[in-house]
Every structure is written in structure tokens, then in C-alpha cells.
Structure prediction request, 803 residues.
Amino acid sequence: MARMQLFLLQFLAIVLLAETFFLLGRSSSGDTDTMMGTSSLLDGQTLISAGSFFQLGFFNPVNDSATAYIGIWYYNHPPSENRVVWVANRNKSVNASMASLNLTSDGNLILFEEGTKVWSTGTSAELNSARLQLLDSGNLQLTAGNSRNILWQSFDHACDTLLPGMKIGFDLRTNTLWPLVPWMSSTDPSPGQYVAKILMYNVPDFFTLSVNGSRKYFRTGPWNGQWFSGLPTMGNNVLVRNVSFRYVYNQNETYYINEYKTASPPLNRLVVDANATYKSWSFVEGEWRVFLSFPSDDCDHYNHCGGNSVCTEGYYTASCRCLEGFKNKSVVVGDGCARKEPLDCSSNQFSKEPNVKVPDTENATSRGNISLRACKKLCLDDCSCVAFAVINGPYGCITWRGELLDIRSFTDGGDDLYIRLAESSTTKNWKKLVWEIVISALLGIFLLSSVGVLVRRRRRNRALQFPNVEKDSISTLDVLPSYDLRTIKAATNDFSEGNKLGEGGFGVVYKGQLDDGQMIAVKKLSRYSSQGPNEFQNELTVIAKLQHRNLVRLLGYCIEGDERLMILEYMENKSLDAFIYDKAKSSLLNWQRRFHIIIGIARGLLYLHQDSRLRVIHRDLKLSNILLDKDMNPKISDFGIARIFKGDNALEDATTRPVGTLGYMAPEYLLDGIFSFKSDVFSFGVIVLEIISGKKIRVFNQTDTNLNLLGYVNKLWKEERSLEIVDQALNQSYPREEVLHCIHMGLLCVQDNSNDRPTMTEVMAMLISEDQLFTPVMQPAITSTSNEGDFTRNEMSFTLVGR
Prediction:
């Protein structure tokens, strides 16, 4: 009996000993995501986050165990592939075979090499209460007690990588900076020569600087509510479909952060490399891809052109231009510009620089969210103010003093900057005016004769440039009100700049209000317009004889002296391009509204082609010619170059003078001058794909292809990835099948061969019936983006003399 008891006691002792060794081994082996109590991590052991996204352990950037570091990298992505997202001992490597990472009983995480402390968190906690855990976000957290008390976390000590959930910015409460510091080289994780951080000016700005802060290399521009204003490509990119951007600006903190939208986070990171180049990576279809990279050109480099100048990126090199009222300091590019005349406090004139990255905000002041007029007044009341801008986001009205640095222009994006001009540069010198009057009196007869000659020449030039269009010549139109010029001038405040709605090849459109309170839009044909009196009369003829809810209604006209005015119904929401191309406004167009707009345009076009008493080819259908009323109903406008067909005999025509807008013109019309109803169908297809994607046909560019928007959509269609082109402003909130239905229909409309394109009758059938059978997509009109370089910066219509 005694022997049996002794045997049982020995057996229990062995079991307890084995369990003890198992637990000790588990605490030091790193099989899980957590270290607790007194435990260690040795070479070859790792912590793996619960969802198997990240792992922590020793890695060797040069495949030498004597040069090892503790770091975090993506699980199943070896650190040799440069996927390391965080490094502990950046300043000193260790010999992995002689090192260990230890969680001490008093709550300190220490890296030892042969008993010598190399790195530590410098934390403390109650005895054996500390817990180290690697989270699925890539954050290594050291907590104590109930795990809510965070003693230390790697997200507060970033290296060269920004992960979703990690902050870049400043904690004003603790005076803690959250920067990014790149590696010295691809194989040396020690701190490099640059630092990326938000500088806490009155208007905070994100910079890449030298480590000592003596030199600036890159600047993003202030936050505009959705992205950094100097990086409009952030809004255009399908960078991170499941990551949202956020910027926090309050009395406690200022920081930028990416956050996951979904429970299953994607693999995404923003890395600044040893050369201070930022790259945003996403793991897509089994490989890492760069979706965004900056600086992307010479104009992105800080103050490339010097102070008070604008940098514009060209096809081969950047060009520099002085702001209005300034002149070059020297012939050396980059020396900047100086004022032609000194600025004094009485100066009240401003010049507008549209679509630019606003200047360095070191000398800027945020005045809060006020109107453009109020912002201008604040600048006028401040003698030191040299410029102002109103941008979206937390800062609103911003004013500048001193030199204006690091301004660049954008083709798409940016903000409007208003530069204060010296009084003498915008008004005549009164002494000079008096002297001119004296001379005029002495040489009166001669000058009067000269004036007479000039008047006669002017009248002759007007007659050549603007032949008369008599009212009798439109007598064949249905009865339309003829307004006198005085009434229209009163309605538009004498065609004031404040009433200007937009302009194009025809001239300018102004907002007006008649005496009875009716709002109107006045289309004023410019004397120097590319669309002359013939187009004016043509548009009057076409619109007057067409009545449809999706066509802009003509209310009347005015022909008086040199003036040619069309009075149209006022459209409260202006043109469709103002919504689709504006990343802030595009979010106002959910899928239901976009689909409603597509159907409305199709109905208007079907009426022109098929159902009206005239059969009309529009010939210049584009987003800017689609106007939106107060209820966002679309209406087709601008019939200046429309062509009328009578009966069913003529299905197409030809011209040696193709006119229209590049990108929207069908290939047979652009190349051979042949136009038909299928030309409008092509333009409609382009519009549909732009509405769905939120991208411009003429400036679309994809880093991994040289295709234009049509070619890229077709490529995605063939690869069954069409939904990747859908506008990110929709936030993936749309009926999948309906969107695919519309993409398919849009591709059918832009096919290269006009015979393959559907008619508008067939298009309407496709839109209103989900059961409509679609034909396969043949070859769309694909144009290399490199071939579009000559016109991607020009939004205007053009005339091309045919072959």
C-alpha cells in the first residue's frame, strides 16, 4: 500500500513538472499573440497576432544573425521582402543568438544582449500584472491590470510606416510628437536623414524635413476636410477601398489617421523611404501594389520655383511663373519673384490664382469658417495680409503675410488663392492722367481725327467679326419674347462678375432676376467667341422648336446693337461636371441620383433623335452641357453646333470642320468628319462611364496602364473587375447588378465601330428593363493617354479642319 502511494506521488510530481515546463516554454516560445508575467522571446520565436496579420520577432535585414533587430512584419511575408513595419532597437543591432526580449515582473519590456540592456520601454507596473500583446492592427501594446491601462504601445513610436489606426501629429497635452522617420537605407533601419511630421503652425501643415529641421523638402498643404489640399490624387485614387481618412484638430490633439471601414482589414501601409518618397501599398490579388506615390514631380518638391511664383508641371519639365503683380528676381530659375510695386495698406485689389496648392502656412492665420466676402474684408482690414483663401475643412478662411512659398498649380483639384495687388499696378497714376489730359487739349484736333479713324475701323472690324443677325431672320421661329437690353442689364446687375455662372467657347452665362422675381440664365455671345452668329441663330432655332423636360427651356432672346443674348431657364445646381469632378460635391450624388440623371439624359437624347418634330444631333454632348435644376433633374443644353435632320432619309452626314470636345467625340467624327445619331450615342456612353467612375475622360491616368478611361473600363470588364472603377464617393453603397448593367451599356455605346453601338431607343430599353438582352462588347474607342497629352489640360471645345 505504501509503495502504491509512493508511486502515485512520483507520478503526480512528474505531471506537475511537465506542465510547468510546458507553461514556461509557452511563455517564452511566442506561439500566441501574448506574453505575460516574467517571460522572454528568443531568436526563432515570434508572437503572432490573433488573426494572423502580423508577427513580432528577431529579423536580419542583411541575412546576418549578428545584425539583428526586434521588429514587426506581415505574417507570411518575410522581412527580407522589406515588409517590416516597426523596429524597436533602431539605433543598435544585436547578435540574435545572444539576445532576448524580456517582459520583466515589474512591467518593463527590455531587449538584452549578453545581459546588457540595448533597448527598453522604460515602463513599470504592479508585480506580474503586465501583459504584452500583438494586435491585428500591427500595434504592440503593453498593458497592466485589466488591460485597459496602456503603459506603452508601438503605435506611439512609429518608424517609417503608417498603418491604419496609427497617428501622425502632435499631442498638445503631453507635448508628444508622432512623426515618421525613414530608414537610413533599405538594409539599415537606423533613423535616416529625414523626418515626416505635422508642424504646429496656426494652420498646421504636414512636411518632410531634414532631421534637424533646417530644410523643408515636401509639403502636403492643409487638410480640406477629405484629404490634404496639396495632394488631390488622394481623392482620385482607389488606394484603400476599405480605409477611410480622418484628420483631428482640437485643443488637445492634431493628427492624421487612416482607419479601417470593415471588420476584416486589408493589408495596407504608407511608407516613407530613405529618399523621402512616400508610397502607399496595398496587398491586392496576391501581390503588393503601389497605389499612390509622392512627391510625384518637380513641382511637388518644396518651393521649387521660389517665393511668390507658381510651379506648373509640363510634359517634360516644370515651368515657373510669377504671380500677377510680381516680376522675376533674376534669370535663375528658382530664385522666385518680387513685387513690381510696393504694397501699401490702401491696396484693395486682388488677383485670383485658381486650382493651386495654397502657400506654406508658416506665416498663415486661420480665421474660421466664414464666407469668401468676409474673408476678403478681413484681409483688407489687415495691412500685413498679402493673400487669402477659403478652403474646406477645419480652417476655413486663411490669410497670409510675408512671402508666399511653395505654390503649385493643378489640372484637377486645388484651391483658389487671392493675391493682394499693389494699387499702382491696377489703377492709373493720376498725375499721368492729368498730363494726358493736358496733351489731349493741346493736340485736340489731331486726337479727335485719330479717334474718328479708330471708331470707323472699330465699326468695320465689328462688322467683319460679328455680322448682323436681324430679328427678321428668326421670324420663322415660334413666338418668343424679345427682351430689351436695358431689362437684361438690370436683371444681371450689368453683367457683373458676381452674377457670372460660367463660360465656354460661346462666351459667358450670367444669373439674373427679372422684375417679377423670375430667375433666369443669360447666355451672352462673345464677340470673339469660337461660336459665331450662325451658331447663335442655330441654337435659337433648335431650342425654340424643342420642348422636353430634359432639355433646357428657352424663355426669349435679345438682339440689340452688338449684343446677342439668349434668355434661358435658371438651373439652380449649375452643370453636372461641378458635382462629378468635385470630390466634395460628388458625395451628394448617391447611386439613385446618378441613375436618375443617366435616365434623364437618355430620355432627352431619345427625344432629340426620335420623338421631336425635328431630328437633332447635338454634336457636343458632355458633362458641362448637362445642367441640373433644384431637384437634380438633368437638362441638356448648348445646341450651338447641333445639326437638324428632316425626315428619315439622312442618317449621317460629313463635314470638313469637325467641332466638339475632345474625349467625347466619336472616332469616325474626329478622324473623318462623319457624324450621325451614333455620334451622340458615343458621347452619351462617355458621360455614363464618367458618372459611374467620377473620373474625367480627358485626364484619367492609371499608374499601371497607358489606357484612357474607356480602355481601362473595358480592361476591367474583361477581367470581371468592373466595380473597381466605381466612384469611391459612393462608399460601396449601390446595387451591384444595376451598376454592372450600366457599365455594360456604357461600353456598348463607346464601341469603335458606329454600327456596333445601340440606338437611343435600345439604350432606353436597356435602362428601364433588367431583362433586356445585351450584346457582347466589341472594341471600344481606346486611346493611349500618352496620345492625349496635347489636350488633357484644355476643357474648351475645339474646331479641327478636316482632311
Observations:
- Residues 165 and 259 are 5 Å apart (CA to CA).
